[in-house]
């Protein structure tokens, strides 16, 4: 490559796009030294050229026509920060088919159409980098692909959604209800007006699908991930967890054993001594276990204008270096095999259960008998509160197969001595 600069086409100038422009501008001299050439933004795709911007930008750079970027042979890197599936998918695919290199922050796109995108990238020996798609400014994609490439990764577990972590942190420290904290998070801009993707766990599910695909060398899509959100977590659950030495976090969990992969997102009790237990507010963290490295954790801001832009610009610099050396496409798709995804019913873990039962002799024995018949072993049973003729009890199981627990709960819910099953939450991060 003999040009004096690396030319960029930026798709989108929202929060992340604005951050990318800021970082490229304010750190331009340092970036030029690291790359060996200037990195210049040649065109920016926007919906409305006349819209007021939060960053100073030359109006001549703005366009509403994507072909001004895709058909420009001088543009080396297309940076997609629009978000969503369409039209981003079509734009990225066309860019790759035209032989351009792509940097994207789009987790939705990677989690659902990664195979198609990487095939296009490989066909044209183009770079496709996506560090910002998971955990914002925290480096995790490249460490898994490169720094830890010599490992057989056994587990990836993380807090990878800042909104839900903020909500659970506030519920824990202030004793607030879910709806109350959600409203506060929306007022502060941590949660969207429609928070479904966050609080239902869908955002985290897309991210753990990406991480699992890289970690275990197999294609994992959003549809392969078992998902539960945090909407059923109550103040009582958080208080009981605290008394038992746990905190509740929304976790993305991916593990491989004997060539079989499990991938899930759900609330979990984790011991207060676990590294992830101290990750609070909008911060993210990803805990990795490999056969050579042992345990490692990556921690930082998982979202926001500049943290996410940091990851995007890091990818831009990496592509620019590859362009200088003529080695684009050297780090291709790492999904070399197709491994079985374990159904949730086959997953084994410990459980916390909260039940409201009749306060009379023999009730606990009857419940324990049902569990025993389904091979569910109880580690502890604690009576917490009494209300007239009813009592609330908290149970912690040993490691059990989820199908067995579900079968037992189906029977228990129909017992005349049981009023309700208040909540069922998995317990992670500890061994029997």
Automatic annotation (TrEMBL):
L-homoserine binds at residue 192. NADP(+) binds at residues 11-18. The keyword Amino-acid biosynthesis applies. The active site is at residue 207. It is an enzyme of class 1 (oxidoreductase). Its cofactor is a metal cation. Keywords: Amino-acid biosynthesis, Metal-binding, Methionine biosynthesis, NAD, NADP, Oxidoreductase, Sodium, Threonine biosynthesis. It holds the Pfam family ACT. Residues 352-432 form the ACT domain. Pathway: Amino-acid biosynthesis; L-methionine biosynthesis via de novo pathway; L-homoserine from L-aspartate: step 3/3; Amino-acid biosynthesis; L-threonine biosynthesis; L-threonine from L-aspartate: step 3/5. It catalyses: L-homoserine + NADP(+) = L-aspartate 4-semialdehyde + NADPH + H(+). This is Homoserine dehydrogenase. It comes from Calderihabitans maritimus. The lineage of its organism: Bacteria, Bacillati, Bacillota, Clostridia, Neomoorellales.
């Amino acid at each position: 490559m003999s040009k004096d600069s690396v030319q960029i086409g930026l798709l989108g100038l929202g929060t992340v796009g604005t951050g990318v422009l800021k970082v490229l501008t304010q750190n331009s001299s340092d970036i030029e030294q690291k790359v060996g050439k200037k990195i210049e933004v040649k065109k920016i795709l926007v919906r409305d050229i006349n819209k007021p911007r939060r960053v100073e930008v030359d109006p001549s750079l703005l366009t509403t026509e994507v072909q001004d970027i895709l058909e420009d042979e001088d543009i080396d890197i297309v940076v997609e920060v629009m978000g969503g599936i369409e039209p981003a998918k079509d734009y990225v695919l066309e860019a790759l088919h035209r032989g351009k290199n792509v940097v994207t922050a789009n987790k939705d796109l990677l989690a659902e159409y990664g195979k198609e995108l990487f095939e296009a990238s490989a066909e044209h020996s183009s770079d496709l980098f996506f560090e910002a798609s998971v955990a914002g400014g925290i480096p995790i994609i490249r460490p898994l692909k490169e720094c830890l490439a010599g490992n057989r990764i056994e587990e990836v577990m993380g807090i990878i959604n800042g909104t839900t972590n903020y909500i659970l942190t506030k519920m824990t420290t202030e004793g607030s209800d879910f709806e109350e904290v959600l409203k506060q998070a929306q007022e502060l801009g941590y949660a969207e007006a429609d928070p479904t993707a966050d609080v239902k766990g869908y955002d985290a599910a897309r991210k753990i699908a990406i991480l699992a695909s890289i970690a275990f060398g197999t294609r994992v899509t959003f549809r392969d991930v078992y998902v539960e959100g945090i909407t059923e977590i109550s103040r009582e659950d958080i208080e009981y967890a605290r008394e038992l030495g746990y905190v509740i976090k929304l976790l993305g969990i991916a593990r491989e054993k004997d060539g079989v992969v499990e991938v899930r997102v759900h609330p979990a009790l984790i011991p207060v001594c676990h590294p992830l237990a101290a990750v609070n507010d909008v911060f993210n963290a990803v805990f990795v276990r490999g056969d050579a490295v042992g345990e490692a954790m990556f921690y930082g801001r998982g979202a926001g204008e500049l943290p996410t832009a940091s990851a995007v610009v890091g990818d831009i610099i990496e592509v620019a270096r590859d362009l200088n050396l003529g080695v684009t496409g050297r780090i291709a798709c790492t999904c070399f095999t197709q491994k079985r995804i374990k159904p949730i019913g086959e997953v084994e873990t410990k459980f916390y259960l909260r039940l409201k039962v009749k306060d009379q002799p023999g009730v606990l024995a009857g419940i324990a008998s049902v569990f025993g018949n389904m091979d569910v072993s109880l580690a502890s049973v604690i009576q917490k509160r009494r209300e007239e003729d009813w009592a609330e009890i908290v149970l912690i199981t040993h490691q059990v197969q989820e199908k067995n627990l579900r079968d037992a709960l189906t029977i228990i819910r129909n017992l005349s001595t049981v009023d309700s099953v208040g909540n069922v939450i998995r317990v992670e991060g500890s061994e029997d």
